[in-house]
Amino acid sequence: MYVAVKGGEAAILATHDLVAEMRRGDTSVPEVSTAQIREQMSLAVARVMNEGSLADADLAALALKQAQGDAIEAAFLMRAYRTTLPRLGSSQPLDTAAMAIRRRVSATYKDLPGGQVLGPTYDYTHRLFDFGLTGTSDAPPSAMPSDVALDTRMPRVPDILGAEGLMEPETPPEGDPRPFDLTRDPVEFPADRDVRLQALARGDEGFLLGLAYSVQRGFGGNHPFAGEIRMGEVPVEFVPEELGFAVDIGDLTVTECQMVNQFKGSKHVAPQFTRGYGLAFGHAERKAMSMSIVDRALKGRELGEAASYPAQQDEFVLYHSDNVEAAGFVEHLKLPHYVDFQGELELIRRLRRELEERIAREAVESGVLPKAAE
Questions:
Q1: 297, 312 contact by CB (below 8 A)
Q2: Whole-structure pTM value
């Protein structure tokens, strides 16, 4: 039982002032701007956009600043703001095959049609501190020019395998129904794939990373291949009712990952490769990769596989991957539980008395203590 605490309004208002003071820090240090966060902490901004279910880099930067860098609190701010926005409609499906690519790698083919594009990545950097970053120099970094012409023909690896009949086909459900909206309707289990992908897209990156790791190590023993990871800009199109045709309303930076897994087949399906899919706002490879691994694990039921480890249990994964809900459930323990605790305190005291009485009674019955001692 929770207990409402009264008379603490002045204290609560004081905590607001203390939070503002702590957020600002040493006033002799220049205050960081949201533009600086947006441009120089873009990976953190991408995480907040994903887990906050809102693609707005400016708001994500503001949320990070307001939350003192706490990504979960920032995502909470984004979701709360998102609920105030009117729903104007739905955009057309993104065509990631037509992505203006900035990074594109595959672990399956060395000589990939269109080539490997390393792009911006920490994969090849030394994990050593660059103390030059402690300064505030505005000198541009030395790098290769970013306007190098890339091959516009970059077919996705699963499509290459699909052309040989080696990749499971993926077709829209019969009638191509409107996808489930996780933000408006409660989830029911077993959950369909559109629900699962939505939940994974805004799931906690760390939790999904742990699940993806579990699939490969202690519980799954599975070794997927990174069929393709690509990052870049895709056009977003919207069809206004009054026009009846698609209008380009802007570009969106996304990261897409398609994992390739071996499937031994079944009575009715020939051996082939299956895929796991991940799509995330911004440059978010770890999130997209983890999402795609878990997506494949959750597809086991449709493929006739036994659900024998945690990442295959959709109820476990979807209910617990939402870090905003999880944080609220854990942090509610800070609320006053005075009545509950007093009840448990009395219970423990009573159980201890009963235990002491039972020990004394058994000692008398066994002759260890004389009856007079009772």
A1: yes
A2: 0.88
